[in-house]
Amino acid sequence: MLNLEPGPSPKKPALESMLSELRHRGPDSTGFYLDEEIGLAHARLSIIDLTSGDQPIHNEDKTVWVIFNGEIFNYIELRKELEAGGHRFYTKSDTEVLVHLYEEHGESFPDQLNGQFAVALWDTRNKTLFLLRDRPGILPLFFTQQAGRLLFASEVKAILPCLKSAPRLNLHALDQLMTLWAPVSPETVFRDIYEVSPGELVTVRGGEISRHKYWDWTYPPDGEYRREPERLLAEELHSLLVDATRIRLRSDVPVGAYLSGGLDSSVLTSLIHHHGTVPLRTFSIGFDDRSLDESDFQKKLIDHLKAEHSSIQCGIFDIGETFLDTIWHTESPVLRTAPVPMRLLSGLVREQQYKVVLTGEGSDEALGGYDLFKEAKIRRFWAKFPQSKMRPLLLKRLYPYLDVSPGKAQSYLQIFFGQALDQPDLASFSHLPRWTTTAKSKELIRREVKEIITGDPIEAMLNTLPRAFRDWHPFNRSQYLEAKSLMAGYLLSSQGDRMLMANSVEGRFPYLDHRVIEFANRLPPKLKMKVLNEKYLLKLAAGRYLPGKIVARPKQPYRAPDIPAFFGGRTPAYVDELLSQKTIDDYGYFDPAKTALLVKKIKQGRAIGYRDNMTLVAVLSTQCWHYHFVENRGNRSVRGVVE
Amino acid sequence: MSFEKTLRSFILQNFLFTDDDSALSNSDSFLERGIIDSTGILELITFIEEQIGITVEDEEMVPENLDSIDNLVRFIGSKQSKDH
Q1: For residues A398 and A372, what is the distance between their CA atoms, to the nearest angstrom?
Q2: Which terminus in chain A has less CB density within 10 A, N or C?
Q3: pTM, full prediction
Q4: Alpha carbons A29 and A41: distance in angstroms, whole number
Q5: Closest by alpha carbon to B61, among A438, B49, B52?
Q6: Does B22 touch chain A (CB under 8 A)?
Q7: Range from A120-134, A157-171, A312-326, A598-612 carrying the lowest mean pLDDT
Q8: Rounded distance between C-alpha atoms, residue A9 and residue A28, angstroms
Q9: What is the phi-psi region of residue A249: left when phi exceeds 0, alpha when psi lies from -120 to 50, beta otherwise?
C-alpha cells in the first residue's frame, strides 16, 4: 500500500492481513518493507536461490526496493552484464536483477526482461512506485484507491481486508464477460478495482497515476512478412523454442510438464526430453467421459519418450463438488467448468512434490491453432462469393456435428455463420459468431440490471484496438483479438495462474516467450495456417520429435463437463442453495423465475445445447462469486456453511 | 391444447425462460430475435417430431417453415393435412 496524499504511514498488521489471503501463492516465507509512504509485503514460493532470495530485495544503497511474483528467465545473462557494469549483488536470486536493471535503464527496464512477472518497485529517492506486468499477462496484478491510499496485490482478495465496505459486482464487466469471456482490461468484475494490463507499466508519483504500454502484440502491415524459405523459418522457430524451453528449466527445485496429448504439449515435452538436463516428469488429466478424454494420445507419447508420468482421473462429481471453492480462486464468474480439472491437476503436481511445470498455452494464439481462425478464414472465403452453395459447406469439416444437425440446411448455415458476410473488413469479423453466441447467456440477467448496463461490450473491446490494426492481415487481426480477450482474460487467469497457484504451483509458458511471439507475428499468415492445416510451421519445426499420429491428429479443444457436473445424478447442496429462487432474488443479478425454468429444463434432461450449458455455469459462478466476495467478503473460513 | 399454444409455451419456457405470453408474438422471427441458435434448431425439431408426431425432412428445414410460431403452425398444418 502506498500513501497518495499525506497521512499516517502504512502499518505492518494491515500488510499482514493482506498477505494472509495470499498464502497459497507464497507458502514458503514472508517479508516486509515499510517506510513513511509505503508498505510492501511479500509471500514467497521459493524456486530460485532458496537460501538468500527472500524479498523485499534492495539495491546497493537500499534506495530501491522490489517485491515480485514470477520469474525472470534471462537473469543469468542480465546479471553478467550488470556485474560487468559495476553493480554488486548480495543474493543469487533472479529478483535482484530488477533493482539493478532499473538503476541502469530507468523506466525502460522492462524491455530487458524475458519472463513472467508482476512487480512492485519503489524508488525512495524520487518517491515513485512502479507496478509492472509481463507482456502476455501470465501473472496478475490488481490495484484500487481508498481513502488517499493505493492498494495493490496479486489477487483481489488481498485488497478486500483494507476496504471499508463490501466489494460490489461491476455490472458492465459482467456484461463484457458474458460476451467476450472476460472484462475488457483494465476493468475487473470488482467495481473500482482495476488490473495492471498485460505489457503495462503503471507509474505512481506525487499522488498521480500514469499508465504506459511498454509492449503489445503487433504485426507488420499486410504483405511485409519474413521472406525466407519455410525450411529456414522452421529451423529458426525450432531454435527459439529450444531456447525458450531451456531457460524455463532454470530452477533450484525439480521442474515437470503438463501433457495433454495434443500437439503443443507433445512438442514441449519432447523438447525437454531432447534438450533438457533433467529427466522428463509429466502430469496429465483424464476424463471419465470418453468424448473429452485424451488418455490414449498421452500414453502414446509417454511410451515414446519414456517419461515418468502421473495422471489424475476427473469425474463429473469432482467438478461439481469443488466448483464453489474454485471460484474463490478465479475471483471471477466463468462460462465453463474447465478451470476445475486444471486445479485438480496442479493438486496432483504438488502432491508429487513438484512446484514448477512447463505448459503449452500460447501456441494456438501465436502460431495459429484455433478452430475460430479456420472458421473466420472459411467465412472470408465464402464472403467473396456469398451466393455459393459449396463454400459454406467447408464449415462441416470444422464442425462435423453440422452434418447430423438440422443446422446443416443451407439457410441456417447462412444465418449461424454468415454474420457480417457483407462486411468482411469489420474489425470484429472473426469473433462475431462466438461473441453473439456467448451473449445469449445473458438471457437470465434481471431486467433491472439490464437497465443499468450501458454500452456495448464488443464496442468496448474494439475501442482498445491499436491504430495499426486495420493495416494487418485478417488472420493477424483474429490472432490479436484472441490474445487480448480470451487468452489474457480467461485462459491465463481463471484457467491458468489461478488454478496453478491454488496449489502453490508455478506454470511456465515457453510458447509465450516474447521472442517466439515476435518471431511468429512476422511470419506470413499462410505459414501459420496453410489452407486449413493449423500451426503448419510448428509441425514443420518440431514434427521430427513426434509419432506421426500426434502430428496428423485433428485439434481437440480442451473441455470439461458442464451441466452434468451439477445435475448428472447428484447435486451438491450449495448448488441448490445458490440457485434457489430466494438466493437468486437476494443477490439480485438474475431473474428468479427464469432461473427456475432453466433448472427445470436441466432436471428434465432437455438442456442439451452449448447455450444452456454456458448460461448455467455463468449464473452459478456469479452466485458463487457473490457468496464469497460480497456476502462473506472473501473470508474463506465461512465457506463451510453451504459446502 | 392447440398446436399454437403448445408451441408457444415450449418456445417461451425453453428459449426465453418465461411464462409471460407477451414476450413473443406469433410473427416474431426466432432468428432475428436471437431466440434460436444451431442447437436450438435441434431442440425445436426434436420437440415437433416427438410431440406432434411428424417427421421434418431435410429440405423442409428452412426458415419459411420453422422461423416463427405462425410459420410453424402453417407448416405443421400442411404436413398433417398431407398425411391424412
Answers
A1: 9
A2: C
A3: 0.93
A4: 11
A5: B49
A6: no
A7: A598-612
A8: 27
A9: alpha
% of chain A at pLDDT higher than 70? 97
- Judged by CB atoms closer than 8 Å, whether chains meet at A405 and B41 is answered as yes
Residue of A437, A597, A598 lying closest to B37 (CB–CB): A437
Q: Cell numbers at residue A482, please?
A: 484472441
Domains, chain B, ordered by start: 3-83 (1.10.1200.10)
Shortest Cα–Cα distance, B13 to chain A (Å): 7
The CB density around residue A311, as the number of other CB atoms within 10 Å, is 17
Are the CB atoms for A72 and A115 separated by under 8 Å? yes
Q: What is the ipTM of this complex?
A: 0.79
At A641 the pLDDT is: 33
Position A636 scores a pLDDT of 65
- What domains appear along chain A, each with residue ranges and CATH number? 2-213 (3.60.20.10), 230-367+484-551 (3.40.50.620), 563-641 (no CATH)
Q: How large is the average pLDDT for residues A37-44?
A: 96
Tell me the C-alpha distance between A57 and A97, whole Å.
10
- Substitution target in A178, A398, A415, A434 with the highest count of B β-carbons within 10 Å is A415
C-alpha grid cell, residue A42: 511479500
Contact A112, A201 (CB under 8 A): no
CB contact under 8 A, B17 and A412: no
Element (H, E) at A57: strand A57-58
- How far apart, in whole angstroms, are the C-alpha atoms of residue B3 and residue A334? 38
Q: How far apart are CA A112 and CA B15, in angstroms?
A: 53
Banded pLDDT at A86 (limits 50, 70, 90): very high
CA–CA separation, A413 and B53 (whole Å): 26
pLDDT digits (tens, 9 = 90+) for A378-392: 999 988 888 887 788
C-alpha closest to that of A143 among A133, A522, B52, B32: A133
Query: Which residue, among A278, A88, A257, has the nearest Cα to A97 in the 3D structure?
Result: A88
Helix, coil or strand: residue A552: coil
Rounded CA separation A490/A488 (Å): 6
Answer yes or no: do B14 and A608 touch at CB < 8 A.
Answer: no
Residue with cell 458476410: A421
User: What does the alpha-carbon distance between residue A126 and residue A107 come to, in Å, rounded to a whole number?
Assistant: 13
Give the distance between the most distant pair of CA atoms in chain A. 73
Do B38 and A407 make contact, defined as CB atoms within 8 angstroms? Answer: yes
What's the pLDDT tens digit per position in B17-74? 998 999 999 999 998 888 887 778 878 888 888 888 888 887 888 888 999 999 999 9
The reply to whether A252 touches chain B by the CB within 8 Å rule is no
Of A277, A270, A276, A275, nearest to A301 by C-alpha is A270
Mean pLDDT rounded to a whole number for chain A? 93
Q: Name which of A530, A518, A547 is nearest A240 in CA terms.
A: A518
